[in-house]
Write a structure and sequence with these properties.
The chain is built from six helices and five strands; from the N terminus they run βααβααβααββ. It is an alpha/beta fold. The protein has a five-stranded parallel β-sheet with strand order 3-2-1-4-5. Helix 3 packs antiparallel against helix 4.
Length: 134
């Protein structure tokens, strides 16, 4: 099955916490393979785990997430999309973090909807990036 949603780092973090029943219920309604994460998100989460004292608990939570979701590798189309999006936003005087830009570019290149709770993605034109706030 082709993925429909690329889950942003903040959404994965909420899933790992396991307290957002509305989010967990929505995910449970999806067929296997419809929600994925970017390898960039995995890197960002891994960095966060390494910085925390509760790393064993967080590692277990991440492992549980990864049992149910595939990780899309960062690839050439994502890199090309990144360059395009960065240039587009730069000409408009808009700056997003490198991680956010890479995740957005990955969603654009894969032609799937980015699921986030970060309103910064709303700066990217809707005809380029489809975003849903869950």
């Amino acid at each position: 099955m082709n993925p429909r949603y690329l889950l942003d780092t903040n959404v994965i973090s909420h899933i790992m916490q396991g307290r957002d029943t509305k989010l967990l219920t929505r995910l449970a309604k999806l067929q296997v393979g419809q929600a994925v994460i970017s390898s960039v998100t995995l890197a960002e989460i891994e960095y966060g785990i390494q910085r925390r004292s509760q790393s064993v608990k967080l590692r277990h939570a991440l492992d549980q997430v990864l049992l149910h979701m595939d990780v899309l590798p960062w690839d050439t189309p994502a890199a090309m999309s990144y360059g395009e999006l960065c240039h587009l936003l730069e000409t408009q005087g808009i700056n997003l973090s490198d991680f956010d830009m890479m995740i957005a570019a990955h969603a654009v290149a894969a032609k799937i909807t980015l699921v986030s709770r970060d309103k910064a993605f709303m700066h990217i034109p809707k005809q380029r990036l489809k975003v849903e706030i869950w």
